Amino acid sequence: MKQKFHYATVTEATEKLQEQGFDLNFSLEGNHLKADNEAYPAEDFEIVDLYRYEGVTDPADEATVYALASAAGQKGILVTGYGYSADAQAEDVLKQLHYKYQQKNGEQ
């Protein structure tokens, strides 16, 4: 399954995803997604879609927007920037989410 849209900016992507019901704004702390003073186990979520942005003149402007959903019905957005790997556990969680996404979509 390929992405249907590619939005021009991170802001546009997050606005359009919010219109589609991705209403939680996640942060990733260790192996949990946090939003609105709630913590959700990251392994309960799958990447529904993702959008990558590369800085034209500055690699520090790189960002990835993740549309995430759980089987229990929670839907939200996680935006990560360049150098997110400062937290090794969070980096491992993102790798696992990417792996599940690639397997589901037949990517290698």
UniProtKB/TrEMBL annotation:
This is Phosphoribosylpyrophosphate synthetase.
